[in-house]
Design brief:
Blueprint (H helix, E strand, L loop, with lengths): L1 H15 L7 H7 L4 H12 L3 H17 L5 H7 L5 H10 L1
Length: about 90
């Protein structure tokens, strides 16, 4: 049960820090779990991998910004993507 509480804290962290660089190692350490157990538990609870979840959340947040009519390049960088091409690929795949 302890792991589920820690996982909620990690998800809350992801939601607040979507525009920052993240890696599985850092998130697992934050949840005080081994990298491999963290990944398995996250997939079991959420249904997607950790980094897929981060990507989906970034695209969802960016889609709200697109409605405002702003530049795609600005939206991509503000939402944690390294380039507008990376954002466009992620957006199309979702």
């Amino acid at each position: 049960m302890y792991e589920y509480k820690e996982m909620k804290g990690v998800i809350d962290y992801i939601e607040v820090h979507l525009d920052e660089d993240m890696c599985v190692d850092m998130l697992a350490e934050m949840g005080m779990l081994s990298k491999f157990y963290f990944q398995r538990l996250f997939y079991k609870l959420v249904g997607v991998t950790v980094m897929e979840y981060v990507r989906l959340r970034r695209v969802a947040r960016a889609s709200e910004d697109i409605k405002d009519g702003r530049k795609i390049t600005d939206i991509a960088f503000e939402n944690g993507f390294n380039s507008s091409e990376t954002f466009t690929r992620a957006f199309k795949s979702v």
